[in-house]
Amino acid sequence: MTSLYQRLGGQSALDGIVAVFCSKLWSDERLAPFWTDVDRERLCSALKAFLAQAFGGPGEAGRFDLRRSHAEAVSRGLHETQFDAWMYHWAETLQDHGIEQDLIARTAVVLESFRREVQGRG
Ligand code: HEM
Hints:
By secondary structure, the chain is mainly α. It has helices at residues 4-8, 10-26, 32-35, 40-54, 66-69, 71-75, 80-96, 101-112, 115-118. The chain has one domain (4-118): Orthogonal Bundle (Globin-like), CATH 1.10.490. The chain is built from nine helices and no strands. Helix 2 (10-26) packs across helix 4 (40-54), helix 2 (10-26) packs across helix 7 and helix 7 packs antiparallel against helix 8. The longest helix is centred in the N-terminal third of the chain and has 17 residues, at 10-26. Protoporphyrin IX containing FE is lined by residues 31, 34, 38, 43, 46-47, 50, 64, 66, 69-70, 72-73, 78, 82-83, 86, 111, 114, 118.
């Protein structure tokens, strides 16, 4: 079965998509407070690796502990609204790249599955 990673076009396509996605995150005023003390380049690289694996591409499952890496952001107010904004930018970025709706929806289902961990719930 073709993975979401392959359907998105593999690593080089994903890297390009994530680079644009990150720039949307950095320029969203509602999210700005979360990035002040963060190494943005490192975060963006981590996202490329994480998403590749999450979408069925290469990488080691369990390399990232999303609950731990977001604990500080949660204590600063990462809740539903901020997660929704993150998801909005993701979908919009894929749309900008001409990705079909069905594929966008499938990636969103995968990302939604991390909501509880990222928000430090349950
Ligand atoms: C499905 C949604 C999300 C995923 C998959 C995700 C994924 C990641 C990954 C892979 C890292 C790097 C962790 C590491 O290097 O070990 C990270 C770091 C981070 N994320 Fe997220 N994230 C999500 C949502 C969010 C949201 C909504 C916010 C805030 C609005 C956020 C804020 C941060 C911050 C501040 C860091 C940097 C932590 C640090 O280096 O100190 N993330 N995220």
